[in-house]
Design goal:
There is one protein chain. Helices cover 66% and strands 0% of the residues. It is mainly α. It has two domains: 48 residues; 43 residues, no CATH class.
């Protein structure tokens, strides 16, 4: 009897890659649309404003799309806590890894002053 692999059995890394490939495919289609739109707007700008006509005919605008990557903040926090508790990372390194902190040392000092 043949065995089938279901989506729930696929490792998370493969699921991420599949999602990433879908985003890239969508990025190509949307990127082409956006490039046509920008080209039209540059041309229309030159038609509407005669002082910009020459510039609109020589201007070259490239559209580059940057896919947004969702980060699992809970997972990052769990990794940071585990690394800190097992003394692999310092508290400063753990806080920096999680991110969303501009002044790590100030936050650590603030925390210690709060609990004292």
């Amino acid at each position: 009897m043949p065995k089938y692999l279901t989506w729930s059995q696929v490792p998370d890394t493969v699921k991420f890659e599949s999602t990433h490939l879908n985003v890239e495919k969508l990025n190509e289609m949307v990127g082409e649309f956006m490039q046509r739109r920008v080209n039209f707007l540059v041309s229309a700008l030159g038609s509407v404003n005669s002082t910009l006509e020459e510039a609109s005919e020589t201007m070259d605008v490239d559209v580059q799309m940057q896919p947004y990557k969702l980060e699992d903040i809970k997972n990052k926090i769990d990794i940071a806590i585990k690394a800190k508790d097992e003394e692999i990372w310092s508290q400063q390194r753990a806080i920096t890894f999680v991110g969303n902190v501009d002044a790590v040392l100030d936050d650590i000092l603030l925390f210690y002053n709060y609990i004292i």
